[in-house]
Amino acid sequence: MWSRMRNIKLTIAYDGADFHGWQIQPGLATIQGAIADAAGKITQERIFVHGASRTDAGVHAFGQVAHFKTRSGLTADEFRRALNALLPPQIRIVVAEEVGPDFHSRWQSLSKTYRYRIFRGSVLTPFEHRRALHYPWPLDETSMKQAARMFEGTHDFTSFAASSGSEEDDKDREMTREIFRSEISSRECALAGDDSAGGADGASSFSGPASGILSGSVPSAGASSGETVRELRYEIHGKSFLRYMVRKIVGTLLDVGKGKIKPENIPAVFEARDPSRSGPTVPPDGLYLVSLEYPDPTASLAHERRHAAREIG
Fold it and tell me: Same structural domain for residues 70 and 116?
């Protein structure tokens, strides 16, 4: 006798450096494929994992959300432990929870937050290779911060997006996006070997790519002991994003920092609707999917109860 179908929501962290993105591709290692394979082994079912965001090759996450349906009797936390036992160490299920049958990780997402990391030290530590963009040369960070704010609001982002790969799809694609927050911040960290950087033995507190982002610490690097190194972080929070949109925006902000584009010229780049007018698409190495936001299910339930009470009254 078959048990009822259940819906399992996953919050996932991953280092995407060695993967060909989220989406399954025949013969290639992908995040979606790895999780689907592991879930299939656990349940002995054919599992399809729906992801909220189809991150590109080399992009990382510590707040990706996905879901899959199963008839397995395992609890959500048993799924978390079993999946982590089978998945490669670059992928971790942070949280697993059973949700209602109508939950969909992609279609019910209200907004997303991405972060891009730019390492400013003179030497990029090997622990940050493929996890941050290394740019040690001068930048006008004040102008970059000013320009970053100009991406907030509702705009046509044609100048800041790549082709979908299909002329037919591009023709009908909606290019307007709403951005709630767009900002650059910076932080300093001491060199490894400086006792202030870690514990009593001077070791860095960094223990992996996700932990550094969550804690705010990064492995430090530089030419000599005592050098203070800095990291720029660009964060953007919006309803949805076009292909390569965040990476094109970061490339444009770097051009602002280099003096190639003035902050006051950003509106003209929007109006041009021409990708050649914006900056280059930066590498995926420094890009992280931070989090996704969803409707509050308890608020929705309370609303339904109030509506039912009014109907009865």
Answer: no
**Span 16-30, mean pLDDT?**
97
Per-residue pLDDT at 65 exceeds 70: yes
Domain that holds residue 45: 6-108
**For all residues of the chain together, what is the average pLDDT?**
86
Q: Which residues of 241-276 are buried (b: 16+ CB within 10 A; e: fewer)?
A: bbbbbbbbbbbbbbbbbbeebebeebeebbeeeebe
Catalytic residue among 15, 56, 255, 285: 56
User: Are 236 and 259 within one domain?
Assistant: yes
- DSSP three-state, residue 91: strand
Residues 280 and 252 in one domain: yes
Backbone angles phi, psi at 142, to 5 degrees: -60, -45
Q: In this structure, what CATH number is given to the domain that contains residue 154?
A: 3.30.70.660
pLDDT for position 14 = 98
Query: pLDDT at residue 310 above 60?
Result: no
CA–CA dist 175, 192 (Å, integer):
44
Active site residue 15: no
Contact 10, 65 (CB under 8 A): yes
Mean pLDDT calculated for residue range 101-119:
97
Q: What is the pLDDT, as a whole number, of residue 187?
A: 87
